[in-house]
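In this section we walk through a basic example: taking a raw amino acid sequence and producing a predicted 3D structure, encoded as discrete structure tokens. The instruction is simple. Fold the sequence below.
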Amino acid sequence: SESDIDEMADWFIQQGVQRLFLSMGADGILFRTPREERLIRPVTSHIINTNGAGDAFLAGLVHGQIQGMKEADACEFAASCSALAMEHINTINPDITELLVQQRIEGVLC
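The resulting token sequence is shown next.
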């Protein structure tokens, strides 16, 4: 339930976790810090293959943070990477670029 998820997220934050990214499946990603909470809605995609979606999310998250994005923006970037990964038959979508991800975020590619 939603209250169980909140309790679990609270527990991680109380244990000292500074950034929590919790997959909510089709509902998106729960992003939480000690000061902020946000639900990042999933990006619309035509799902072909879900293999590699989590890896693409993590890669996008790391890329966003290395680039100095705000945490919530990095999470949105990562969600778009994941959506693009699921639109390719291969586990790793060879067509993903930063420009393509940005276009997806801006709604140019839906």
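Looking at the output, two observations stand out. The beta strands are 20-23, 29-32, 37-40. The chain has a mean pLDDT of 89. In the next section we compare this with other chains.
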